[in-house]
Design a protein that fits this description.
single chain, alpha/beta, 9-stranded mixed β-sheet, 6-stranded mixed β-sheet, binds zinc ion
Amino acid sequence: MSATALRVGICGFFIECNRWSPVSTAAMFAAALDLAGADLQAQLAAQPPRTLPDTAGFVAQMDQLGPWEPVALRMAAAQPGGPVEHAYFVDLVNDIEARLRAALPLDAVFISSHGAALTTQNDDPDGELFARIRAVVGPAVAIVAVLDLHTNVSRRMTDALSAFVAYRCNPHTDLFERGQEAALHLHSLLAQGPGVVELVKLPLVPPATSQLVAPGTAYAELIEIGQRRVGGAILNVSLCGGFALADCDKCGFAVVVTARAGERSLAAARALELATVVWNWRERFVSILTPLDRAVQAAVAGPGARPLILADVADNPGAGGGGNTVALLQALLRSGAQGVLLGVFTDAALAREAHALGVDANFEARFNRDSRDDRFAPAFTHGARVLALADGLFVGRRGMVKGSQQDMGLSALLDLGGVRVAVISKRQQLLDPAQLEVLGVDLQTVRTLVVKSRGHFRAAFDEFAPPERILEVDCPGLTTPNLKTLPWTRMPRPIFPIDEHATWSP
Ligand SMILES: [Zn+2]
């Protein structure tokens, strides 16, 4: 390493928090990702690394741009869930701060962040982390962050950053590229002085189902318009639909513009102009779901019907759902539908029992025996046969986790008569056909696939069914996009589309 190599601190805190999901604990971070110092340093060079692809993209691009020295601080990430145990978050931030002080002097800091975290006592932990980092390094050091487009943005967050880079794809397939982009901005800021980040918030909370970035969607067109404003003094335009289910005062569509030093008024004008376009298009973010009975009718359609996907969007583990609600499953069982496969249903006790019984065993399957959610995931039993067993390890084949090693824990494929259910132990959404294929499923034999996922499955199951054969089903659940049904307590009101008459002017 040359004596003039840039020293860049690397850290992260990554979780999306649903106000109503069970508390996210230190153990959940430990099981997913929580690395510091030498352990994190080793992952920065590992292939494939355990860190998220944004960090890998940042490292790869920095390597190309010249001599530099990554200084690993600490990085923690967990599956979407409820608010984080506050004591864990306090320890985490104190640790990052202490490691940062010990690492000084640094030329810059990179943060891998989701941006929609809550703790049990703090509704803006991301802002707290960013501000604490800024306070340690001072105003002259560049701090760049990559964030999920579902981030709920506060001014505390943007005031602390020198560049704000949100994903532009949903499903999120561009983390690596956004990490690369962050590295390019970092080099540009080091040459020209720390950037400025301007924020405009709107009283608009698009349901997650309306935030798909695909040809013809409002969100895709807005992101395209935003990208046309990038160039010259404007380094980045991020359009963040946010995560309504956090139910906090940070909720609301955020337009975030990063510009070169000294260009704050230009950044503010661009942000306001784009926010006006978003607001004028707000009706396009209203989400229309398929009623449960209509979805079941579609599944019982006669032979020859084209493959169908029923998305159980109200039970998306990728937004804090338990992956174990039963409304859609029970309705399909009652309907006599044939050729149905549901994946993936989280129930560790049921998976263990199936493993103990063995393949071909017939038994009374007791679903949700350990569930504490009587409202959406009550216990029920149904006669079943064990079709296949697996250890739950799979390598992603298509879409968001393609090429990476993943783990569902002990898994079993059960036949309930017309409906097969892929039961897993480690809560996660269905993202990849490999999750079903490790259980011996041939998707050619499936007529209706029920996915416990909101939208990320689309990047992988496009080979199974085209978009017009995907129905987003209106079921009860913790992650329902039917926002008017939720018990909001902290959401700023009025806000569209919960309050249809919400107003905003530039
Ligand atoms: Zn997201």
